[in-house]
Amino acid sequence: MKEAAIKDFISYLSLQKRASPLTVKNYSYDLKEFFTFLDTEIPIFDLTDITHQHARGFMAHLMDKKQAARSVNRKLSTLKSFFKYLVRSHILNANPMQKVQGPKNAKKLPVFIDEGQIQKLFDNYNFKSGFEGLRDKLVIDILYQTGLRRAELMGLKESDIDFFNSQLKVLGKRNKERIIPFGIGLKRNLEEYLNVKKDQHLLNPYLLVTLKNTPLSALNVTKIVTEVLSAVTTGSKKSPHVLRHSFATHLLNNGADINAVKELLGHASLSATQIYTHNTIEKLKRSYNQAHPHSGI
Asked: What residues contact residue 212 under an 8 Å CB cut-off, 6+ apart?
């Protein structure tokens, strides 16, 4: 019964909710981890035997393993969705997860790179010659100039580029499409890259590919970004998301409308975008020096 219910739930996520492959993979892993834990608590059990105490025990188990509150809450969200599905499918009469609350997430400001460092990167970084160098530069350029998530970048196809209107069609979370404009510099880089890609007889419809004509993997993208960002920052975080954070922070610091930034990022709610309304310490210092009467003392 358990295995069949999980299989049906995963199919529901993929086919009806149209969740991304990464989301489906994470949900599958979370459920496997939960039921592996339950096997040690209740060697033989039915889905109707599961209570909110088991879920709380699972959360305590995760916290004992030093997992972050954010990770624990994501797994709790998976369980809530799964048991909600079981109730809706008349497999269970009640959702035991309704009584369970997750730990509070620690509030952290997003890590971003200073505008001057970004400019230094584009002015001075020596990318490799040839196709791979053009591709790696394009990866950095797209991530910073559009704020795409890594999965969205990997999903871009050549057909998603509208050169006439200088915009990209992006498939985001929950398969929601959005349109993102891009500037003349990125347009030139895209054109140059695609010309070389064609000369190399790399005909894969995905925009970013390897010399073997296969789409860039998540590991490929992270490796490229980490290597390039290491040249301009000593921070511990050098992931593709750092460029997304930098995109949003720089837009808002330069006066962009927060609702417009929300749409560009593909956020479902404004609250997710508001975390970027922090100011850089440099901007705070400038404001203080310009406005405070004793700042020059």
From this structure: none
Quick check: is 267 catalytic? Answer: yes
**pLDDT at site 297:** 54
User: DSSP character for 91?
Assistant: S
The average pLDDT across 210-218 equals 96
Cα 140 to Cα 169: distance, rounded to the nearest angstrom:
18
Q: Which residue has the tokens 């020059």?
A: 296
CA distances from 6 to 15, 58, 82, 83 (A): 14, 18, 8, 10
Catalytic residue list contains 244:
yes
DSSP 43: S
Q: What is the mean pLDDT of residues 244-261?
A: 92
Catalytic pick among 27, 85, 144, 276: 276
What per-residue confidence (pLDDT) applies to 110?
Answer: 83
User: Is 201 annotated as catalytic?
Assistant: no
Spatial contact of 272 and 259, defined as CB atoms under 8 Å apart:
no
State the catalytic residue, choosing from 197, 244, 250, 262. 244
Q: Which of 17, 52, 74, 173 is catalytic?
A: 173
Neighbours of 285 (CB within 10 A): 12
**Prediction pTM value:** 0.68
Average pLDDT over residues 92-111: 82
Quick check: is 54 catalytic? no
Query: Which residue segments constitute the domains of the chain, with CATH numbers given?
Result: 2-99 (1.10.150.130), 115-285 (1.10.443.10)
* Residue 56 is a catalytic residue: no
pLDDT value of residue 283: 63
What mean pLDDT do residues 144-148 have? 96
